[in-house]
Amino acid sequence: MTAFSTLQDLEILFGLALVTVILFRRLKLPSIVGFLATGILAGPHAFRLIDDAHQVEQMAEIGVVLLLFTIGIEFSLKELVRIRQLVLWGGGLQTAVTILAVGALTMALGYGWSQGVFFGFLVALSSTAILMKLLMDSGQMDTPQGKIALGILIFQDLCVVPMMLLTPLLGGAGGGWQGMLLIGAKAVGVVLAAHFGSRFAIPWIFGQVVGTRSRELFILTILFIGFGTAWLTAMAGLSLALGAFIAGLAISESEYSHQALSDLIPFREAFLSLFFISVGMLLDPAVVARQPLTVAAVVATILLVKTVVCGGAVLGLGVPYRIALIAALSLAQIGEFSFVLSQAGLKYGLLTPELYQIFLAASIATMGLTPLLIRLAPGVADRSAALLPKALLHGRGSLARGEKKLHLADHVIIVGYGFNGRNLAKVLRHLKITHVAIETNPFTVAAEKKRGQRIIFGDASTQEVLSHAQVETARVVVIAISDAAASRRIAAQVRAMNPTVRIIVRTRYIAEVEPLYKLGANEVIPEEFETSIEILARVLRTFLVPQDDIEHCVADVRRDGYEMLRGISRRHSHAVGIGSYLTGAEIASFQVRKGALLEGESLREGTLRSRSGASILAIKRGEEMIPNPDPVWELHEGDMVLVLGTPEQLAAAGHLFEPAHGPADSGHKS
């Protein structure tokens, strides 16, 4: 009967969740808020579809174990090292100052210091599950604010372990400092055991299991390690959740981590939904109905304190104001680990049942407000920036020192020093083309300056930073960042400051192309379109399609796709040039190589025109530029030739500038 009852409860919960989550998704709210609402409706305090409180607590604890286990597997120590400055400085400042601020505020209201510190623990943590999902869905994971949020979230997740160890001590049940030291020693022992287990025991176990080639046995082994480690840590006096996280961390360091995670992915959403449904079931709506103003005041205080403290911590790193505020607003909610701590606080007397219910209600409200805060953050940042002194907006801190005046002309400005920016700078440096990069990460700026890269710190959407990069005398500005809103702001500001500069923008989706052209971009490169071309080429190579046929197919796709994009560009053209009157044509530059068919030939012979269909617009020899050259002009080795033609004609022309057995195409399309 018990087994039947449990199955019935799960069926009720997941069936109700289907309806609730669909409704919340249509309202553009995250699924997690829908799961919380499902728990509230089904719980013992609302419709009493499930009224066994003890069973609810067990389900919540199982959900926590499963949640932390999967997060532990995903956790990457290499990623932690890569963004260690953001993690240690940003996360450390945010967590420590939040605990101090909330603790001081709580003590001012008449609570003891231990409760104040514990309340600080609860408020300091943000929701990794909600925020990462929202950032991924909106394509903001690679933006500066996304990276800052990730660094702070990682530090918060690491702080859960000592917070869980300190909670019994704050509640007076930890046996004093001797008990704390004992628990700390146990934790260190478990971590060391997990470390050596990940190096020796787990690879050996997985090696034996993989040898059987049984996927079922592999999944069973994953669960055995996860639940087994959680059980052992609980037997040692630590929490089940801590053991589950350590077990996931041990698996994450093994060569089988990716397969383990892929096998658990189908269950992960169910784990998350079970956990948040369980949390919602613990909330008593009657408490909210009796004290709505108290709950509203707690929500407002949490949002205000977290925004101010997090924004201040990020500004302390030297990050520009706009990015700092957007990151702070995205981190203003209460996190899922705070629910775990709150249950421990209730157990050890740090929370009364009434305070516990108020905290649950306020936490759920902050989670529900997160999508709205993220949506409003850019506008709030822009409007508030207009009210502040400009000296506070550019990002000035101990890690962002003042920049020396640059004296540049006819140069390239690279906005964003990520993967695309680095590659472009590397090529420009090799070709000795003058360039300067603009980056918002002060740690990246400091590191690249040591390597000799000309790079300045700041927000490229501001007039002062662009002026410092000498945008008025630049030839090209390349916007190579992942933030679509910031790209639009930068393109508009660049065009306003230099009407003739060429603006090239990298963007993620084709839908973002037309707004950028409207704001003044000359060329927009959508990754979505380029990815589709690369996929096409690789599929055709797999079927052994000849390379020239592949090039023709790619040229057709490029011609059709970019003709559509050029049509958008012409509708919003900001400069009059030859490109505005050409349809389906491109301009490319080629260098005459030693032994090429065209070397030593005069233009009168017409070899280029007859064999490719392309036409020569100009020739550069040394420092001399000859536009529209006479037919008597003879091509020499090293000449740079500007050629006009369709993509197919340019591909054919490229072979004529190379030696008989040289590379197929030395051109650089413009």
Please describe the structure with a list of short key phrases separated by commas or semicolons.
8% strand, alpha/beta, Na+/H+ antiporter like fold, Alpha-Beta Plaits, 670 residues, Rossmann fold, disordered C terminus
Please identify the top-level CATH class of the largest domain: Mainly Alpha
Secondary structural class: alpha/beta
And the CATH topology of the largest domain? Na+/H+ antiporter like fold
Strand order of the largest sheet: 3-2-1-4-5-6
Write the CATH architecture name of the largest domain: Up-down Bundle
Strand percentage lies at 5-15%
Low-confidence stretches: 397-402, 662-670
Number of domains: 3
Averaging pLDDT over every residue, what do you get? Answer: 80
Q: Characterize the main sheet.
A: 6 strands, parallel
Q: How many helices in DSSP terms?
A: 26
Whole-angstrom Rg = 30 Å
Distance between the termini: 74 Å
Share of helix, binned? 55-70%
Q: Label the overall shape.
A: elongated
Q: Total strand count, please?
A: 11
Task: Write structural notes for this entry.
Strand 1, helix 18 and strand 2 form a beta-alpha-beta unit. Helix 6 runs antiparallel to helix 16 and helix 14 crosses helix 17. The protein has a six-stranded parallel beta sheet, with helices on both faces. A five-stranded antiparallel beta sheet has the order 9-8-10-7-11. The chain is 63% helix and 8% strand. The C terminus is likely disordered. The protein has 670 residues and is an alpha/beta fold.
